[in-house]
From TrEMBL:
Top-level taxon of origin: Eukaryota
Boundaries of every PDZ domain copy: 18-85
Protein name: PDZ domain-containing protein
InterPro entries: Myelin_sheath_structural (IPR052082), PDZ (IPR001478), PDZ_sf (IPR036034)
GO biological process: one example: regulation of RNA splicing
Subcellular location: Nucleus
Species in which this protein is naturally found: Cairina moschata
Gene3D superfamilies assigned to the protein according to its UniProt record, in alphabetical order: 2.30.42.10
Pfam families: PDZ (PF00595)
Main location: nucleus
GO cellular component, one term: nucleus
UniProt keyword terms in alphabetical order: Nucleus
């Protein structure tokens, strides 16, 4: 955990630290409430004393919640579906495990990546040409 410098509302520098906390099954994300939203961000509003949020994770009022990872091992289909549907309008990062069939699939993956790379180069070149930067 490395401290990160950030500017406060008053223009003073303050130290902030990004921390990753992991829950165990049954501990979940309970014992605290949040506030905010939109451009403001989501912040911890209140932490119940003697809750896992207080005891295990040392959450504090005012902490900003940057992201939450929900593990899909042993999750019910209905729960996974709801989570994915609710997350649709937001930026999402997936962690995947994939079985690769063989040489043909590897070649397909490579050719698809190469096509995307070439297409991106064409788009960037066209944008630069139209903006007069070339």
């Amino acid at each position: 955990m490395l401290p990160v410098k950030s500017a406060s509302v008053l223009g003073l520098n303050q130290e902030t630290m990004e921390v990753t906390l992991k829950t165990e099954v049954e501990a979940g994300a309970s014992g605290f409430s949040v506030t905010g939203g939109g451009d403001e961000g989501i912040f911890i509003k209140k932490v119940l004393k003697e809750s896992p949020a207080s005891k295990v994770f040392s959450l504090r009022e005012g902490d900003q919640l940057l992201s939450a990872t929900i593990f899909f091992d042993n999750i019910k289909y209905e729960d996974a579906l709801k989570i994915l549907q609710y997350s649709e309008p937001y930026r999402v990062q997936f962690s995947l495990k994939r079985k690769i069939a063989g040489k043909e699939e590897l070649e397909h993956i490579h050719s698809t990546a190469q096509y995307k790379k070439e297409r991106l180069s064409q788009v960037l070149f066209t944008d630069r040409m139209s903006s007069g930067k070339l």
